[in-house]
Amino acid sequence: MVTLPSDKEAFIAHYDQSKDRLPGSSLAWLNETRAKNIALFSDIGLPSAKTELWKFTSLNPLKKQAFSAPETSELAANDELPRLIDSTSSVRLVFIDGNYSEALSDSSLPTGLTMESLATVLENGNRDLDQARLTRPRAEEQPFVALNTALMADGYILSIAKDVSLEKTIEILHLGSGKAESTHHTRNIISVGSGSKATIIEHNADHGENVYFSNAATDINVDENATLHHYRVQESNKSAFLISSTEVEVGKGATYDSFLLNTGARLARSEINVSLAAENSACHLNGTYMGTDDQHCDITTRVDHKTPHTTCDEVIKGVLSGNARGVFQGKIIVHEQAQKTVGNQSHRAMLLSDRAEVDVKPELEIFADDVICSHGCTSGQIDEDALFYLRSRGLSQEQAQSLLVNAFLADAVEAVQNEDLKDLFLVRITNWLERNPNKPA
Amino acid sequence: MLEIKNLHAEVDGKAILKGIDLNINKGEVHAIMGPNGSGKSTLANVLAGRDDYEVTEGGILFDGKDISELEPEERAGEGIFLAFQYPVEIPGVTNTTFLKEALNAQRRYRGEEELDGMEFVKMIRGKTKELGIKDDMLKRAVNVGFSGGEKKRNDILQMAVLNPKLAVLDETDSGLDIDALKVVAEGVNKLRAENNAILVITHYQRLLNYIVPDQVHVLSNGKIRRSGGKELALELEEKGYADYSGEAA
Ligand SMILES: Nc1ncnc2c1ncn2[C@@H]1O[C@H](COP(=O)(O)OP(=O)(O)OP(=O)(O)O)[C@@H](O)[C@H]1O
Ligand SMILES: [Mg+2]
After folding, report:
1. Residues A284, A255: contact at Cβ < 8 Å?
2. Buried-most residue among A50, A185, A353, B175 (CB within 10 A)?
3. Which residues surround ligand 2, an ion (CB under 5 A)?
4. Which of A392, A399, A407 is opposite residue B101, by nearest beta carbon?
């Protein structure tokens, strides 16, 4: 058997190397949790082609790559940091290679918002920390979450008090410093108090084109009648590996509104699991992805409708060129008691080259009888008639294609609930198209 | 202006145009009539440069220049416009955006200066007024949810904005009500000038009452079987195409 540089053992070795210097190493419960999770990871192992939830996403590129154990890193002082939203309308938190940088983050937070770094909280042995949320049992076997729990070194713990409407957007920058072969296991917690409204936008970006592996796990509670707009702009460099898992619990009358825009990474796997266990809870899981060259983008979602009157809308659109691959797996489970559920899911992909490929697996498991659920997945080439129509009016092949692709993707952005941020996504779509003019095959 | 010589074209290996000869001079209006499936739209698409159709013999000169190898957008830049028999819906792209991009792309091709937003808006307002097109149609996605007649009218708006040297109208009259027919005809007649030419494909003599052709051609089974003056259209309306089955002549 060929041994790959990053097999299961390599990551277990990371744990052995770093367990004594991980934050909170004096906390017994934490050490126990870490030990339990590395054992769990060791049991499950890295997903393979036989792993049902990973059958369309091969981890071979990751396994073939050598990685080093987590370390902290510094950023050169004069390095410019990308910013999505103007500082007058946002507060920005900065993570470098997975570690919180207080110096680079905005210092004054709006009232109603508190933020602590996980590393600090663990180091200080903070008693308020809800341990359960770091160890919450999950529905399916998640080796990367287990690995994350064993190795988590930092992350954000964001709390929004009750009945506040945060005007400023919380921007969280996850920057790769350019250190090659590094690994980051960030663990985040978001709590939105009842009746509150907030927008969080996370931004993955890099300095340089180096290989690294980011393995993030985020735990979100949106309390009664609160709304969280949770957006992500994943623009990591095309050598990066970006695996993330987000667990969301939506309260009564509350809404979790998410939008994912992915143009980055060699391999990006974004998993979102939402539990709608309170009446009138709702979620929107929308997004667009664009891939080229050898990029692989996987969006895997699972929504559990557990009580009556819960709603989920999901619109995902992707565009792939070159050898790029897209994966969409969307599971909707309507539990027996969840009458009056509304669940609509659609995934549409446009393939701009013969070599691009998309795999989809929509799954509806419905155990209640009075529900409205729909799903639709389509994929296909660009509409040749439309292309010719535009060209016959004078638009170049590239211009015509870019107009059509743009329109196709922009349609998904329509679903973004925070109107002010729509442009941000639209601009990124346009930029991507300008950077990747797909020549006719 | 347009010289088509012995044009043969096929699609998926099936011969459709079987030797078309047609000359259109500046300032002229020609009409092509002919039975369903005879190759009229194929000819229109070949002129516009659709690459599903392979030209196997013969050629096309436009203003003395061989355009057979030009891309559709280059032909548009040279001044060829095709109003489609079935205008295509383009979801998500507004009419205004489309028109502006198209016009400026053509102007760039010709080395002319692009119009800025203000100039464009002013120009387009004038055109919509002339053609009786409501402004809100400009804000809508190209042809999406338009009625059959509205789509045709929209193509004529594009023609008016792009001001081509040669306009090929493929059954632009079908599906139009009488008022719309007049509006479209007026639009076409406005384009009619010393330096422009128009090729009208139609099944109905009625349109030719409004857009009076200099010549009428009968296209049947991939070839022009007869040419004549505007009275030929009347004759065809009366007798049909029985005499032009294609095997004859
Ligand atoms: N893409 C294609 N593949 C196969 N056959 C085609 C294709 N396009 C056109 N044809 C065939 O070529 C012939 C001519 O079609 P064309 O559309 O040019 O006819 P037309 O004269 O415009 O007819 P109509 O009056 O009905 O519009 C028809 O038999 C049609 O089926
Ligand atoms: Mg036709």
Report:
1. yes
2. A185
3. B 40-41, 85
4. A399
* C-alpha–C-alpha distance, residues B131 and B155, integer Å: 11
SS3 readout for chain A: CCCCCCCHHHHHHHHHHHCCCCCCCCCHHHHHHHHHHHHHHHHHCCCCCCCHHHCCCCCHHHHCCCCCCCCCCCCCCCCCCCCCCCCCCEEEEEEECCEECCCCCCCCCCCCEEEEEHHHHHHCCCCCCCHHHHHCCCCCCCHHHHHHHHHCCECEEEEECCCCECCCEEEEEEEECCCCCEEEEEEEEEEECCCCEEEEEEEEEECCCCCEEEEEEEEEEECCCCEEEEEEEECCCCCCEEEEEEEEEECCCCEEEEEEEECCCCEEEEEEEEEECCCCCEEEEEEEEEECCCCEEEEEEEEEECCCCCEEEEEEEEEECCCCEEEEEEEEEECCCCCCCEEEEEEEEEECCCCCEEEEEEEEEECCCCCEEEEEEEEEECCHHHHHHHHCCCCCHHHHHHHHHHHHHHHHHCCCCCHHHHHHHHHHHHHHHHHCCCCCC
The closest alpha carbon to B95, from B52, B141, B133, belongs to B141
Query: B88 and A394: CB-CB below 8 Å?
Result: no
Q: For A33-52, how does the pLDDT look when each residue is reduced to its tens digit (9 = 90+)?
A: 999 999 999 999 999 989 99
Per-residue pLDDT band at B238 (split at 50, 70, 90): confident
Identity of the residue numbered A152: M
Q: At A441, is the pLDDT very low, low, confident or very high (cuts 50, 70, 90)?
A: very low
pLDDT at A355: 95
**In this model, does residue A135 exceed pLDDT 80?**
no
The first and second tokens of residue A20, run together, are 């004594």
Residue among B77, B90, B141 whose CB faces A394 most closely:
B77
Interface pTM (ipTM) of the complex? Answer: 0.95
Q: Is B15 in the pocket of ligand 1 (CB under 6 A)?
A: no
More confident residue, B30 or A136: B30
